[in-house]
Specification:
By secondary structure, the protein is of the alpha/beta class. The chain has 15 helices and seven strands. The strands form two sheets. Strands 1-4-5-6-7 form a five-stranded mixed β-sheet. The protein has a two-stranded antiparallel ribbon with strand order 2-3.
């Protein structure tokens, strides 16, 4: 069903609701007292108003989505992780065999927790391999150790449920990649969350869970590990949080590498996603500034930027049309109800002048529906006027 047909069908459905509510509360009135047509804006032959080209998740969570776009690429993830994980461990891992493990675990109290990304890599000296939990954060979270503990517990429970560990657990290393501008000054270990004096902490240490997560703070590091695509993407994600000048400077500096990566099959799609992110993300720089920087590059980067910008404009227009249809439906419903209430007042009480002005100030369809029913059941006009006060 098209949006236009859906709008009309919804309008008819609401008309029937109005009618049925009135019938339940009073005698069967003449059908012509009810609005039979609602004012709905017309649209002509739009192929789609749903914004199929625009990923809603990308709009709502651009940072998280760009992070996943980068790190679901196994070569990009491997290049980054092998440099972030302690060398003594990294050298024992077979990074060419890195795999992504789907990671969703449900808890009755905490509802659903879904890790950003969970990897498994074979490791010498570890028969079950090494699991790496990679979390993305754009704001500091004091409760990150507890969140990670919940994730890790779910992972171990799933291992046990599957019965593939032969009575053992595989190690899980949590890593948090922080994108924000503020310093990460919250606990990085679970032990820091316990409210204990030094003496009590020392005495209870053997009996309390304790672990630390590795923190990679983009905003306070000079060198970003990994391949060229990882460095470019994370540098732009970092600069978004650091103000207009830093963001535009990062885009300008990245335009050359992005131009090259657009011409490579391995990285072309990632750079298209990065351009979309750069144009959509909320930053101190205007979208016009961003567009102008990217379009100063010759060749494929300029053409791709212009293409994506035009696509986003069109999708924005279509989204606006859809919103207009919905708003128009509600306005049309209200206008029809006001007219019908006035007509009922004229037929039953011979006058609608005392209520017409007050009705124009009411824009809540449900209240107008109640007033519509009252207009047909009220014994006097004063009763209807009192309800409008």
């Amino acid at each position: 069903m098209t949006p236009i047909n859906l709008a009309l069908a919804t309008s008819r459905k609401r008309e029937k609701v109005i009618l049925s509510r009135c019938v339940e509360r009073f005698y069967n009135p003449p059908l012509d007292l009810y609005p039979s047509r609602l004012v709905v804006p017309l649209a002509t032959s739009f192929a789609s108003l749903s914004g199929q080209g625009m990923d809603k998740d990308f709009l709502q969570n651009p940072h998280d989505r760009m992070f996943r776009e980068l790190f679901t690429r196994l070569d990009s993830a491997a290049g980054f992780l092998r440099e972030v994980i302690p060398r003594a461990v990294s050298e024992r891992c077979s990074w060419e065999e890195l795999q992504i493990v789907p990671g969703t675990w449900v808890d009755e109290e905490f509802n659903e927790f879904e890790s950003d990304l969970l990897y498994r890599v074979p490791m010498q000296g570890g028969e079950l391999g090494l699991y790496v939990l990679l979390e993305h954060q754009s704001t500091p979270d004091r409760w990150m150790p507890l969140r990670l503990l919940i994730y890790m517990t779910r992972i171990w429970q799933e291992m046990r449920k599957q019965g593939t560990t032969d009575g053992w657990l595989a190690p899980v290393m949590p890593i948090v990649v922080y994108q924000g501008a503020r310093r990460w000054e919250v606990p990085t270990s679970l032990g820091e969350l316990f409210a204990l004096s030094d003496e009590a902490r020392e005495g209870l240490a053997p009996f309390l869970p304790a672990f630390e997560y590795a923190l990679f703070d983009l905003s306070h590091t000079t060198a970003i590990p990994g391949g060229i695509e990882t460095r470019v993407v994370l540098d732009i994600m970092r600069a978004v949080m650091q103000g207009r000048e830093a963001y535009l400077k990062a885009l300008e500096g990245a335009s050359g590498p992005m131009q090259e990566m657009l011409n490579e099959e391995r990285t072309a799609l990632l750079i298209e996603k990065l351009l979309r992110y750069a144009l959509l993300v909320d930053s101190k720089a205007s979208r016009l500034d961003v567009k102008m920087i990217l379009e100063t590059s010759p060749g494929a980067l300029k053409e791709k930027t212009m293409s994506i910008a035009e696509e986003l404009i069109q999708e924005g227009l279509e989204k606006g049309i859809q919103q207009g249809i919905e708003e128009g439906m509600e306005r049309g419903l209200c206008a029809g109800l006001r007219r019908s209430i006035c007509r009922l007042a004229r037929i039953r009480f011979g006058d609608d002048r005392q209520i017409a002005g007050a009705l124009e100030k009411i824009s809540d369809p449900m209240r107008l529906e109640d007033l519509h029913a009252l207009a047909a059941t009220a014994r006097t006009l004063d009763e209807l006027v009192a309800a409008l006060r």
